[in-house]
Amino acid sequence: MGQRRGAATMQVCLLLCLTLLSPLGASLRGHRSREAKKRVKEPPVLSTRAPASRDFAFDLYRALATAAPDQNIFFSPLSISTTLAMLSLGARSHTKVQILEGLGLGPQEGSEEELHHTFHQLLREFAQPRKDIQLSLGNALFVSPTFHLQDTFLNAVKTLYLADAFPTNFMDPVGAQKQINDYVAKQTEGKIVDLAEDLDSTEVMVMVNYIFFKAKWETSFDHKSTRKQDFHVTSETVVRVPMMKREDHYYYFLDRNLSCKVVGVPYQGNATAFFILPSEGRMGRLENGLNEETMRKWLKMFTKRQLELYLPKFSIEGSYRLKEVLPTLGINDVFTSHADLTGITNHSSIQVSEMVHKAVVEVDESGTKAAAATEAIFMFKSAPMSSQRVMFNRPFMMLIVENSTNILFLGKVTHP
After folding, report:
1. pTM, entire model
2. Which of 69, 102, 197, 300 fits a disulfide with 331 by CB distance 3.0 to 4.6 angstroms?
3. What are the residue ranges of helices labelled H in 276-390?
4. Cβ-proximal residues to 221 (8 Å cutoff; 6+ apart), any chain
């Protein structure tokens, strides 16, 4: 079984994409409903029943950072874990164990069923229309008509993961590639346009996951306050970037253990961005120390603080071949001739040929204005205090979380 199966091996390709358009410029002030005016918005509470261990997100981040040191990083742990969980439905024996353990799931009875149930609930929640935020998560299978899927697998991915299934002629690789890319471009409003590349006639199925997020901040930065300033990529390399500025109340925590400052900036619609600025020379310490426990500590210890906040406008992309990265998390067999995917098909000669993830983030000043700033006059009833300046003018990390769910996005801005 350990021998290479050669041309007889059929290949499944996994494609994952996300688009995050995050118009930056939030503060704790903002337009709220009549009921919400009675209280101050609290920072999000990460659910203890998340679809998978949030340490998976940070373990994967560390693997990506190690593979591409000093580079921008941006990806969706949720997108990747959704696809792995869906793939586990068709995996068997050690292949399944590796995937579930990689997601942080132990062998305890019922945990796998709970994993799929939680993803199902999350997908249904994301499918609901939202007033202030665009947030959608979806899955699709593109399957060769000559490739027979097990009915139990197909029914499970359609029922639990709300996946669409499309017949696809992989004997025409160019046509198949266009079909997949047109679908992804439509789901991500044109932000991801070339997810599928270099397909060939040996493919029998492509599994796609997409996540699309677009939100405004509770209060925008003023375009007039944006100025070109230095951003220190390294101690020797300095670039000029458009730096936004706003003085306001933000969630703030100084983590002395990890030598970093954390600023929480809420969106409209129950999502929050965390920008994490390590002390000079301490990025490695921050990256190595990030885990679920650290996140919980930050959320518990946040205080509202008046800050003079400087954030760069930026647009970065991430493109990753996870076949080269996931084995460092113990997920290996599925990409080799040892793969047991007999829950997907009765063919024994099937393995995952590639797992591709692409991501885009755009950050600028946009947000709501008008009455937003006025309401804040009644929100903070404390003595005036001098503002602390927090300037993100060197490499920093960012996370996007949505209330009571999982970490949606995770990244590092090394070069805006």
Report:
1. 0.82
2. 102
3. 283-289, 292-301, 372-375
4. 24, 25, 244, 245, 246, 311, 365, 367
What residues have CB less than 8 Å from 151, skipping those under 6 apart?
A: none
Tokens standing for residue 275: 């920008």
Of the candidates 401, 400, 402, which has an alpha carbon nearest to the alpha carbon of residue 74? 400
- Tens-place pLDDT, residues 173-222: 899 889 988 988 888 878 777 778 878 788 888 888 887 777 788 777 78
Report the CATH fold assignment for 6-25+45-215+315-362: Antithrombin; Chain I, domain 2 (3.30.497)
Location of each CATH 2.30.39.10 domain in the chain: 223-312+368-413
Per residue in 387-409, is it b (16+ CB within 10 Å) or e — as a string? eeebebbbbbbbbbbbbebbbbb
Amino acid identity of residue 177, one-letter, is Q
pLDDT-based confidence at 260, cuts 50/70/90?
very high
User: Is 151 strand, coil or helix?
Assistant: helix
Q: What angle do CA 166, 319, 23 make, to 5 degrees?
A: 95
Cα 351 to Cα 87, 273, 338, 339, 385: the distances in Å are 11, 37, 8, 6, 61
Tell me the C-alpha distance between 334 and 112, whole Å.
18
Domain spanning 223-312+368-413: CATH 3.90.1640.10: no
Q: How many angstroms separate the CA atoms of 30 and 163, rounded? A: 36
Supply 353's token pair: 């040929």
